[in-house]
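Researcher: Next entry in the queue.
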Amino acid sequence: MEGYLLVLALAALPAAGNFLGGLASKAFRVSGNGLSIALHAAAGWSSPSSVSG
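Model: Structure for this entry, 53 residues:
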């Protein structure tokens, strides 16, 4: 039973992160530049200038 609860807890982490992220987006104001950096970091890039093209 302990393993089952661990799997349920790990499966709930993405939903909890999504919920907390939604709350944070309502609580804090972010500039356009900050949003750009956050989106690039979420995609795996350290900054927009690191993209080669």
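Model: The CA atoms of residues 13 and 38 lie 20 Å apart.
Researcher: Noted, moving on.
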